[in-house]
Design brief:
CATH superfamily of chain A: MetI-like
Largest sheet of chain B: 8 strands, mixed
Number of strands of chain B: 22
Radius of gyration of chain A: 26 Å
Number of helices of chain B: 23
CATH architecture of one domain in chain B: 3-Layer(aba) Sandwich
Structural class of chain B: alpha/beta
Helix content of chain A: 55-70%
Structural class of chain A: mainly alpha
Largest interface: A-B, 40 and 59 residues
Largest sheet of chain A: none
Mean pLDDT of chain A: 83
Helix content of chain B: 25-40%
Shape of chain B: globular
Strand order of the largest sheet of chain B: 16-17-18-13-19-20-22-21
Oligomer: heterodimer
CATH class of one domain in chain B: Alpha Beta
Low-confidence stretches of chain A: 1-5
Strand content of chain A: under 5%
CATH topology of chain A: MetI-like fold
Number of helices of chain A: 10
CATH topology of one domain in chain B: Rossmann fold
Distance between the termini of chain B: 69 Å
Mean pLDDT of chain B: 82
Chain lengths: 311, 616
């Protein structure tokens, strides 16, 4: 062998210069979080979101008001600063004398569950299929995309009426129906981003290093493709909650007496002139939680840019 | 003081104002400071300077065409004695196009992509010469297209910009600028995006046009050798100031300013340097011990014919490549754009498999390996990509990038990883303190070092460098060449340099292969190729290198006309025959085989066969 004369690479200089301590090293996601924490937006967003979540979990559990209990004598009580209100029902009561605050919080609980659950499911299924379709392409990619096209051609409402009308409209069934009609959008966006990403020089570079397709797809393409989609998907949580409300309107949403935004708003609509708070209060909670999610999202994105692009 | 010159610039100062977001004008900077120039009738004035010296701003100021963010603060630009800036010439628009022509650096974006080129030139002609009929305009455009040597002008008149190559497009732009017979032509860096032989053709054409049309030219370029080939007078621009003026010969041989001397030092020398300085201090390469053997490799791409419904074209990207690389050697593969270099790179690194032929690495036929066997072998041959900005994955620290190959091949884990990364960083000259930093705001050279370190951490035996150095400036290039040299000496690495830059190849390679239209037309040791090339195409390439040295190969004799034929329908016989100055009848009938020249070299040209016969 002619290589016997040569030194292995990197062994020539012996121990190299002192380097930063490996224990103090923080990973890139960690740096992004630290950076985001310095902004007020992020802190306010986290504080409000935590507050609303804690309220939905704790208040109904610790208050002794039964959300389903009707009391005709207490009908249409307005919220606190208005005349006729009382501290037993800080946000007033509805047409059956049920407490708006408790019902809103429990409704928010179910609505958030449906919204977040649907988006997570759509995101996972849609992006996974889209990534494979974009990165691998070929026949498999075509099959996936034709499936997506087929799905897109069925209107969501018709699908919901068929599925939920035949089976019972339970929460998992609602999540499934919404996710089923929503995943093609995610698959398409993920596919086109993955297609562009997989043509980059860096991917060629990784191939040459000997990385397998799975490794490139999961460790290189996915981290580049998914974050932008994730930021947008936060907005989809609200959209899904509104779809659930739409289903509730049709009587295919969460079934009374379980409160959800869909059925609370559907009921409150009739009294909008005289008792505006019935439909408005759940909306206020929705507004607060979505605004704080958006604040967190945009702060994270800005921190990510700052860390990765150095500005 | 004799007659008024065609164009005179007196004390010109141009200032740039960047509007801040809130409307207040901020940051005013002088981009040009006190420029004085004269352009005489029928002369070529060369303006050289590095990027950022203010060349383009000056060129546009001369055309009276400064963008709104720039403003003439003091001084005058006099065209035939009248001040362009002061509104003495009115309207200015009538002057541009009809008397002053302007050609920019990027010909591919200068014309409307939706109209045939002929119609666009004719439209311009009729705009500046009102009353000219369309038939007459067409006649004039056709004759001018012919005089800038566009073959078959009547056919190309109706073709769209995308159907033209870069070199042909630049000819179209010259025709477009000359159509109104301007007295002054401003050529802003027009040869920069072109291959050397095409650039040399354009320069020769420009010189001829100056003589036959009597046009004066302001020729702006970053390269002193290019400029000195065409210019009668030369101006050196540095940071917005003219620091030296004079005849090109004088500036090239006896510069006054230290800056000009520095510029001169950066120009690569090819023939002046003695062989001993270039010949590498390598342990003698044993040519009998090949690390890579490429035999009869061909690759064909099928491209759908867009003009027909159901037809495909076969593009023969690489044909019959045979060569071998010895352990410890540095071999160069050169050629112009479209010659199949990139395809060959992909084949050599087995990113794609060849259609026919075999590639053997270290005695193993790579074509017979399964995907996982090939992956296991990959650490031994590494490719360094051209663009250090895109080649690195984003969002990882330098340590993570360099350690990735170790994780892929499960070579090391735990503390060992960090140690190996640090020692490799040390090896390529990256400071250890950078290990946890992101490669943000690092220079191209530093990024390329990360790229190199990432390949080195696998301890490869063979490195393929695909234009790795061409995006770097001269200084950074020299540093990395020194690094490669050291790695070669200490670790016995073998290199394949794939490049269009002959000057760089001259500095680092032991042998050089010249590619033309998918074939290796000549393979020779460095010294032999540059002193005594065995193929007319090699001669043409060499003659086109812009240097200040006395050229052993005269441009007039060696330079080619036209462009390579399309790889879709290759000509019968020698693929170079239609452009070859010494083509014979038989060249058009049969393709020459690889005739050996000595035991290390070959050339695919019949000229070598006759030499051999004569010797016998």
């Amino acid at each position: 062998m002619s290589n016997t004369m040569t030194t292995p690479i990197g062994k020539l200089y012996g121990p190299s210069l002192p380097a930063p301590d490996a224990r103090r090293y923080s990973s890139v996601p960690r740096r992004i979080l630290n950076r985001a924490w310095t902004s007020w937006e992020f802190r306010i967003g986290v504080a409000f979101l935590m507050g609303v979540l804690a309220l939905t979990v704790l208040y109904p559990a610790f208050s002794d008001i039964d959300p389903g209990k009707a009391a005709v004598s207490m009908r249409f009580k307005p919220p606190i600063p208005f005349e006729g209100s009382n501290w037993a029902h800080p946000l007033g009561t509805d047409q059956l004398g049920r407490d708006t605050l408790v019902r809103s919080l429990i409704g928010l609980r179910y609505s958030l569950m449906i919204g977040i659950g649907t988006v997570v499911l759509m995101f996972i299924v849609g992006c996974a299929l889209g990534l494979v379709a974009g990165f691998r392409g070929g026949r498999l990619g075509s099959i996936i995309m034709r499936l997506a096209d087929a799905q897109l051609s069925i209107p969501m409402i018709i699908l919901a009426i068929t599925v939920l009308g035949v089976s019972r409209p339970t929460i998992p069934a609602i999540v499934l129906v919404l996710a089923l009609s929503g995943w093609p959008l995610y698959a398409r966006v993920a596919r086109s981003a993955a297609l562009a990403e997989s043509k980059r020089e860096a991917v060629r570079g990784a191939r040459i290093l000997g990385a397998s397709d799975w490794r490139i797809m999961l460790l290189m393409v996915a981290p580049a493709v998914l974050p932008p989609i994730a930021f947008v998907s936060v907005l989809d949580i609200a959209r899904m909650m509104i779809f659930e409300a739409t289903l509730g309107f049709l009587g295919l949403g969460v079934q009374p007496p379980t409160p959800s935004f869909g059925n609370i708003i559907a009921d409150g609509r009739k009294y909008l002139i005289n008792a505006w708070w019935i439909a408005t209060m759940p909306g206020a909670f929705l507004l607060i939680s979505l605004t704080s999610i958006n604040l967190i999202g945009s702060a994270l994105e800005r921190a990510r840019n700052a860390v990765l692009k150095g500005n | 003081m004799t007659n008024t010159p065609l164009l005179e610039v007196r004390g010109l100062c141009v200032e740039g104002r960047s509007q801040s977001k809130y409307g207040a004008a901020s940051a005013e900077a002088l981009i040009l400071k006190d420029i004085n120039l004269r352009v005489e009738t029928n002369q070529v004035l060369g303006i050289i300077g590095e990027s950022g010296a203010g060349k383009t701003v000056l060129a546009r100021a001369l055309a009276g065409w400064l963008p709104p963010s720039l403003q003439i603060q003091a001084g005058k630009v006099l065209y035939k004695g009248a001040d362009m800036a002061a509104g003495a010439i009115d309207p200015l628009a009538a002057l541009r196009g009809s008397e002053i022509g302007y050609i920019g650096a990027d010909p591919t974006r200068a014309l409307d992509p939706t109209l045939p080129i002929g119609a666009q030139i004719a439209e311009k002609l009729r705009a500046v010469r009102p009353g000219m009929g369309s038939a007459e305009a067409r006649e004039k455009v056709l004759s001018l297209l012919a005089s800038v040597r566009i073959p078959a002008p009547a056919k190309r008149y109706n073709e769209y910009p995308f159907q033209f190559s870069g070199g042909m497009m630049q000819r179209v732009m010259i025709a477009d600028a000359l159509i109104s017979e301007p007295s002054l032509l401003i050529a802003d860096n027009i040869t920069q995006p072109l291959d050397v032989t095409v650039a040399a053709q354009i320069l020769r054409l420009l010189r001829e046009l100056v003589d036959s049309f009597g046009t004066s030219v302001v020729f702006v370029s970053a390269s002193l050798p290019v400029c000195s080939q065409v210019a009668n007078n030369l101006v050196v621009l540095q940071a917005g100031r003219v620091i030296e003026q004079g005849k090109p010969q004088k500036i090239a041989t006896d510069p006054v300013e230290p800056y000009t001397r520095e510029l001169l030092l950066k120009i690569p020398e090819i023939w002046t340097t003695g062989a001993s300085e270039i010949a590498r201090s390598t342990p003698a390469v044993n040519l009998g011990d090949p690390i890579l053997k490429v035999q009869n490799v061909s690759k064909l791409y099928r491209v759908r014919d867009r003009t027909a419904f159901n037809r495909v074209h076969d593009v023969q990207a690489v044909r019959n490549i045979t060569f071998s690389v010895s352990r410890g050697e540095s071999i160069g593969i050169v050629g112009e754009s479209g010659c199949g270099k990139s395809t060959l790179t992909r084949l050599l690194t087995l990113l794609e498999r060849p259609d026919t032929g075999t590639i053997e690495f270290d005695g193993q036929d790579l074509g017979s390996l399964t995907a996982s066997e090939l992956r296991a072998l990959r650490p031994q041959f590494q490719l360094l990509l051209q663009d250090p900005y895109n080649a690195l994955p984003s969002g990882r620290t330098i340590g993570e990038i360099i350690s990735e190959p170790l994780a892929i091949h499960k070579i090391a884990r735990g503390n060992d990883v960090r140690e190996r990364v640090l020692s490799v960083m040390n090896e390529v000259g990256l400071p250890a303190s950078q290990i946890d930093a992101l490669p943000v705001s690092m220079s191209a050279g530093q990024r390329q070092r990360i790229n190199i370190a990432r390949a080195l951490v696998l301890q490869p035996k063979l490195m393929v460098l695909d234009e790795t150095l061409s995006s770097l400036d001269q200084v950074e290039q020299s540093k990395l060449i020194a690094l490669f040299e050291r790695l070669h000496q200490q670790h016995g690495l073998t290199y394949i340099y794939i490049s269009h830059d002959l000057a760089m190849v001259r500095r680092v390679c032991t042998r050089v292969a010249v590619m033309y239209l998918g074939e290796i037309v000549e393979l020779s040791p460095n010294e032999m190729l540059f002193r005594n090339p065995g193929h007319p195409y090699s001669k043409a390439l060499l003659s086109a290198i812009p240097t200040l040295e006395t050229h052993p190969f005269d441009v007039g004799q060696c330079l080619l006309d036209g462009e390579p034929p399309s790889p879709i329908d290759l000509p019968v016989g020698c693929s170079f025959a239609n452009r070859c100055p010494s083509a014979q009848d038989r060249c058009k009938r049969s393709a020459p085989e690889a005739f050996p020249r000595g035991d290390q070299a070959f050339s695919r040209c019949f000229l070598n066969e006759s030499k051999r016969e004569m010797a016998q």
